[in-house]
Design brief:
By secondary structure, this protein is α+β, with helices and mostly antiparallel strands. Helices cover 30% and strands 25% of the residues. The two termini are 15 Å apart.
């Protein structure tokens, strides 16, 4: 049964910590070592949260993250304690009708103030940089590459995390200045190893992992994978059967929303317009399809 649609949480008995574009973060009183991360059905585009929720989106993102945390557990520890609400503390369990299927009880970590981005194909902001400079985040690439071309090898293109607006792409030198060279090199190498493993798993399911971003933090002094992992919100997934380099690719994400907004005449400042029902439905279908592709063998 599909969980109820949740646009915003109000959870008496829990302490409110913060609210992002998609996730609401809570804490059990007297439990500073853990957080309760609720993935809602909110969706944002062009840095604006839209009025319509996307049914089942929060459940899909949680399902995909927990799948990847399991796949990657031998490469890097992660913050997940459980995604089963019945195994969470009682103040969380009392809200099971809202939180079921979309909630992670996690170890509280100290996050690094950067995002670890890796690209295997030329798309998005990387394509824009390449067309201007022939490089992406200071990494020179061969001339003549087309949109969606596979890169000679994956590249690490970190970014700073923005509280609002777009994250800023940075080169490795700036990344090392922020973190210290030793930590920067460790995170880079770990990110590349994760990407290689995840790409192989995705390819075995007929899916191309174009690019993705990770967040890491420290827990008891150990580097830990936090936030979400390889979801359709943090990653660009393409259908391998439909892949044709030299043009944009249909992706398993909120592309129907972006496409509709681009043609709607909206000026990309709040408030955003309501989405038509067919756009909402197609977006839900895309999220569910990438979940099915990735996780069905583990069910």
């Amino acid at each position: 049964m599909t969980p109820r649609t949740v646009h915003r949480t109000d959870l008496p008995g829990l302490e409110f910590v913060g609210r992002g574009k998609v996730r609401d973060i809570w804490r059990v009183p007297g439990d500073p070592g853990h957080l309760v991360i609720v993935t809602t059905d909110r969706i944002s585009a062009f840095d604006v949260v839209l009025p319509n929720p996307i049914p089942d989106k929060g459940r899909v993102l949680t399902s995909v993250s927990t799948f990847w945390f399991d796949v990657l557990r031998d490469i890097v520890p992660n913050h997940l304690v459980t995604a089963d609400v019945t195994r969470m503390p009682e103040p969380v369990r009392r809200h099971a009708d809202v939180l079921g299927g979309r909630t992670m009880y996690v170890k509280a970590c100290k996050p690094f103030p950067v995002e670890c981005v890796v690209r295997g194909y030329l798309a998005g902001s990387g394509l824009k940089d390449y067309r201007k400079t022939g490089a992406v985040c200071g990494i020179a690439l061969p001339p003549g590459l087309r949109e969606s071309d596979r890169l000679p090898e994956p590249i690490f293109t970190p970014a700073t995390k923005a509280e609002s607006g777009h994250d800023e792409n940075i080169d490795f030198g700036r990344f090392a200045e922020i973190l210290g060279r030793g930590t920067a090199e460790t995170l880079r190498d770990l990110t590349m190893r994760i990407f290689t493993t995840a790409s192989r798993v995705a390819e075995s399911r007929g899916v191309i992992l174009c690019d993705t971003k990770f967040e890491f933090g420290l827990h008891d002094g150990k580097i830990t994978l936090i936030d979400e992992a390889l979801t359709p919100d943090s990653s660009r997934y393409w259908d391998a059967k439909l892949y044709v380099p030299g043009r944009s690719q249909p992706s398993f994400d909120k592309q129907p929303v972006r496409d509709w907004l681009e043609g709607s005449g909206w000026d990309k400042t709040p408030p955003a317009p309501d989405l038509p029902a067919d756009v909402v439905r197609e977006t839900t279908d895309r999220y569910r399809e990438i979940e099915r592709r990735l996780t069905e063998e583990r069910r």
